[in-house]
Structure formats: structure tokens, C-alpha cells
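Researcher: Quick test of sequence recovery. C-alpha cells follow.
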């Protein structure tokens, strides 16, 4: 159709000189016939109008074709959205894990998957019927950790505007199992210049100093908690970057809200109180009056980086005046951490360590460590909220055996000093002990893996892990497993 229109236009243009010549040749004759002259002039005008219309349509078609053309974007592996200056990229990874659990203390039944839980986060203790049922080993496949993301970049007079959305298939809300494929929002944020608003990794602890591992739930992984926040980041020069943020203090889809155990004090001992006894809605520990304030200073230097971070916030309990105590209580929560990594030839070393009060469940991952945030001690209508001291450390070393093969070993350890906040817990046979039944005291994890990249987009690996949690007033939990994984990035 376009070729036909172009030909028609060329024919019309070629016809114009001939028409003009004929008009000039017969002007004397036409002068004697004004009506004929008028008709010839009108016909010539119509022909010119058709030529202009055809040329206009051709120009519009050329502009539409240019706008629809795909251009390379300003970022690697991106393209321009047609008709805009926005660069867009789509990516993700497909991850298939093959799991063999030697003794599966964290799997309660054959219908549930164990890959989401650490030794400190399972209610299944060593020697129980559920544990014994799987001591002969258990084999699982899962691809739930596959991810997809979309990101855009747009230059503006305020700086670069970036958006990022990432999801995987580890959503909760249905019967858990290795085939559960509920979509879960991992990250979603927009950043304009130095200001970021949305959901991404917390500043506290950060991801620097965490080992490269196949298991997504261990070792202790506080820096991988993804939390809704408002963040401001400023480069200071010399490799230094300062960030501050206001972060959601309660529950999110990835980071848990406050974990509180409670007891009623009578003299030297304290008898356990279920959540419904001190909360207007059983299990609701809140409300949260303020967001958590976090800050981090990162120093990037040749071969490595150092990362120092801290947070401060508030824990609050308020029964609403309808339960055992009508009083409300609050306590300060805080934390500090230091992390780093450094590459020396083919060997990279790294690690992170942190300490704090009132942050064990929020920032140390409930499903891995099982740590708690505070103990609520009720005396009549008075309530005392006591934040729990927690601390942990993770270290790793990774060596490049070849350009495509590397080996890693990591060890993590953490302590939850909750017993010191329960009145009378140390007394022999004290009723206070029931307050902390099955709560982890300390936790450890060891991981070792061998990873191979036959091509940059593919990682194949094998990993062995061992986890142990010592529990208050309960049997311990132990997990050790072998995992094979194939990761395909696109």
C-alpha cells in the first residue's frame, strides 16, 4: 500500500508540468470559455491537494516507524521504551534445588518442605516422632527460589530516576510444600537521585560480609532482610557512602515483627502467659509507635569494602484495657554491626558481626535462629517490657580454584540472652522455665560448597550444611543436609 501511494504521488507530481503546459497552450481558447477555464483550475487544485495529502501520510508513517524502532538503552542489557528516553531491562534467574536431608528435624510432615527453615526456627526437636520419621533421610526437589525482575532508568533534571520490582515464588498463605508456587514480592522501590522509597534490603548489617551460598536460609543472614523504608544516600568522596533510612518496625512479608514472651510475676517466680492474656488480639504484639531509624557508612577501597551500621527504635505493648493488664509498656531497641570483605589474590575473606537489644526476631530472621525480641513481665496491672540482648558473628573464606570453579566455607554463631530477663528462671525447678519453652538459647551453622560456572549465566553447585540450636527448657534441634542446585540467569 505504501509503495502504491508513493507511485501515485510521483505520477501526480509528473502530471503537474504537463497540465500547466496544456493550460498555457490552450489559454486563448479557454479565454473565450470562462466556465471551462474555471473547471480546469478547480481540477488542478484538487490534484495538488491530493498530492499534499499523500505526502503528509507518508511523513506520518515514517515518523511512526521511527518511534516504534527499538533502540539500545543507556544501561547494559537494556533497551529504550519506544518514544521515550527511559531504558528498561528484564531479568531473573531459574533455580532448581535438589535436597537430601540426613536427619530432618525441621520437617514436621511429608507434605511440608524443609528448605525454608533453619534449626532455630522449627518446632520439631531431636528425638521426637516427627524427627525420627525422617532420620532415614528425605529427598526433595524445589524451584520456588526462582526470581524475575524489571527495572527502568530515566534521566531527569533531578538526577536519574530508577524503578525496580522483583518477585519469587516463596509466598506463604497456602499449605507449604516443595511445589508451593505463590508469588511473593521481594523488592519494589523507586529512586530519584539520592532518595529511595519502597522495599529493599535493610541498612542494618547489610549484605557485605555474607558468604555466597546455595541455601537461602542460612547462615545467620540479618543483612538480607527486605524491609519497607524511606532511604537517603550520599556519596562523601574517597570511596565513602553514607545512608540513613526510616524502616517499617512491624511485620512485613520478609522480615518479622516483634517476638515477645510473657509471664506473670508472683514473688520470685514468673508463670507463663499466652499471647491472648496480654494482647487484645492474641498474637498481636504492638502497636508500633515509630519506625526504626537505621544508618550505614560504607567504605569501598581496592580489593574490598568495610561496612558499619546501626539502628534504633521502640518496642510497644498495649493490651487496650481488656486483658490481664490494662497498662502499656515500651522499651528502646537498638543495634550495631560491623562487616567487611577483602580479596587477596585468589582468596576472598569476609564476615560480619552485630549486637543489639530488642531486635532478635526482627533482624536475625525468625525462621533461621528463632531468636526473640523481649520479655513482658506482668505484676498486677503493671507491665515491664524487657528487651533481650542478642549477638552474632559470621565469617567465610572463598578460594578460586580456576577461572570458573570456586570453593567456600562459612561458619555462623549467635546467642539469645533471654533467660536473664525472666524472673526466677535460674531457680531449680522454677515455674519460670515454662516461659521460654523451646526458645533457642544459642545457634550455630556451618556451610561448605563447590560452585562452577561453565558459562557466566549458569551456576552449578553442591553444598553441605550443618545447623544446631540449643533450646531453653526443651530438647535441641539439629539439621544437616546436602544440596545440589542449578541456577540459570537471564
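Model:
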Amino acid at each position: 500500500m505504501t509503495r502504491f501511494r508513493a507511485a501515485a504521488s510521483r505520477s501526480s507530481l509528473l502530471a503537474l508540468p504537463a497540465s500547466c503546459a496544456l493550460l498555457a497552450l490552450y489559454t486563448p481558447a479557454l479565454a473565450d470559455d470562462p466556465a471551462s477555464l474555471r473547471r480546469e483550475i478547480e481540477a488542478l487544485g484538487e490534484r495538488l491537494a491530493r498530492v499534499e495529502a499523500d505526502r503528509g501520510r507518508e511523513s506520518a508513517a515514517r515518523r511512526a516507524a521511527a518511534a516504534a524502532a527499538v533502540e539500545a538503552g543507556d544501561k547494559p542489557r537494556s533497551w529504550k521504551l519506544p518514544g521515550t528516553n527511559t531504558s528498561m531491562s528484564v531479568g531473573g534467574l531459574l533455580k532448581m534445588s535438589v535436597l537430601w536431608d540426613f536427619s530432618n528435624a525441621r520437617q514436621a510432615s511429608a507434605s511440608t518442605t524443609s528448605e525454608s527453615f533453619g534449626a532455630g526456627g522449627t518446632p520439631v526437636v531431636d528425638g521426637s516422632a516427627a524427627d525420627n520419621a525422617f532420620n532415614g533421610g528425605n529427598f526433595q526437589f524445589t524451584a520456588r527460589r526462582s526470581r524475575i525482575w524489571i527495572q527502568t532508568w530515566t534521566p531527569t533534571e533531578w538526577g536519574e530516576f530508577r524503578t525496580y520490582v522483583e518477585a519469587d515464588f516463596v509466598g506463604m498463605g497456602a499449605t507449604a510444600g516443595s511445589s508451593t508456587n505463590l508469588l511473593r514480592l521481594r523488592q519494589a522501590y523507586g529512586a530519584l537521585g539520592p532518595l529511595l522509597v519502597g522495599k529493599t534490603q535493610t541498612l542494618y548489617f547489610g549484605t557485605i560480609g555474607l558468604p555466597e551460598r546455595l541455601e537461602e536460609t542460612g547462615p545467620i543472614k540479618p543483612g538480607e532482610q527486605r524491609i519497607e523504608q524511606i532511604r537517603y544516600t550520599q556519596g562523601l568522596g574517597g570511596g565513602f557512602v553514607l545512608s540513613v533510612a526510616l524502616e517499617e518496625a512491624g511485620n512485613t512479608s520478609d522480615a518479622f515483627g516483634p517476638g515477645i514472651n510473657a509471664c506473670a510475676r508472683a514473688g520470685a517466680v514468673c508463670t507463663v502467659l499466652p499471647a491472648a492474656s496480654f494482647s487484645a488480639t492474641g498474637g498481636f504484639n504492638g502497636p508500633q509507635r515509630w519506625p526504626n531509624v537505621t544508618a550505614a557508612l560504607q567504605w569501598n577501597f581496592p580489593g574490598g569494602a568495610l561496612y558499619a551500621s546501626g539502628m534504633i527504635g521502640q518496642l510497644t505493648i498495649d493490651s487496650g484495657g481488656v486483658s490481664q493488664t490494662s497498662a502499656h509498656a515500651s522499651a528502646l531497641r537498638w543495634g550495631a554491626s560491623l562487616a567487611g570483605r577483602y580479596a587477596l589474590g585468589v582468596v576472598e575473606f569476609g564476615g560480619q558481626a552485630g549486637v543489639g537489644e530488642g531486635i532478635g526476631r526482627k533482624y536475625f530472621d525468625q525462621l533461621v535462629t528463632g531468636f526473640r525480641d523481649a520479655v513482658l513481665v506482668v505484676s498486677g496491672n503493671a507491665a515491664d517490657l524487657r528487651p533481650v540482648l542478642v549477638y552474632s558473628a559470621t565469617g567465610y573464606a572463598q578460594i578460586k580454584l580456576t577461572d570458573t570453579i570456586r570453593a567456600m566455607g562459612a561458619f555462623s554463631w549467635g546467642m539469645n540472652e533471654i533467660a536473664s530477663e525472666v524472673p526466677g528462671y535460674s531457680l531449680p525447678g522454677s515455674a519460670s522455665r515454662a516461659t521460654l519453652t523451646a526458645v533457642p538459647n544459642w545457634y550455630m551453622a556451618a556451610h561448605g560448597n563447590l560452585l562452577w560456572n561453565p558459562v557466566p549465566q549458569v551456576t552449578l553447585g553442591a553444598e553441605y550444611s550443618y545447623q544446631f540450636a540449643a533450646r531453653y527448657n526443651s530438647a535441641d534441634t539439629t539439621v544437616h543436609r546436602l544440596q545440589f542446585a542449578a541456577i540459570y540467569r537471564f
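Residues 2-68 form one domain.
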